[in-house]
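Figure 3 (text version): structure tokens given as input.
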């Protein structure tokens, strides 16, 4: 393994960590720095094509929860030139302002990456649900 390939792997791990942080901290516009312009997303909350749609979907599905925690673990990285693939386990908790847990879920993140002029970016995100506790809808934000 070369220093360059180690750096590529670290860059991929950083993408996953930043994705979780952006969602947890409601920094949805910061997702633009993580995704390619033509990124696609397929989640239980819908599908999105293009970074603008990705940001809109993330905002719609998360903004109603005051407290979020996306725990992404066991990240596997596979690289092939200027593209990559990752798999990560997710356990997430969504809670309202009064700290009542509304929803917990477990899933697998499947991600495709592409090296761009600005570095590695997420080109595709697919969330495969595994389990769920709670059935509350996302609270509506006025």
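Below: residues designed for each position.
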């Amino acid at each position: 393994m070369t220093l360059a390939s180690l750096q590529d792997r670290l860059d991929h791990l950083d993408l996953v960590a930043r994705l979780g942080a952006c969602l947890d901290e409601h920094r949805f516009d910061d997702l633009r720095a993580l995704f390619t312009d033509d990124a696609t997303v397929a989640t239980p909350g819908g599908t999105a094509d293009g970074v603008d749609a990705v940001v809109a979907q993330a905002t719609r599905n998360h903004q109603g929860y005051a407290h979020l925690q996306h725990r992404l673990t066991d990240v596997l990285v596979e690289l092939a030139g200027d593209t990559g693939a990752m798999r990560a386990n997710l356990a997430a908790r969504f809670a309202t302002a009064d700290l009542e847990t509304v929803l917990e879920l477990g899933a697998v993140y499947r991600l495709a990456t592409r090296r761009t002029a600005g570095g590695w970016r997420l080109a595709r995100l697919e969330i495969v649900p595994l389990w769920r506790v709670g059935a509350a809808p996302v609270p509506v934000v006025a």
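The longest strand covers residues 101-116.
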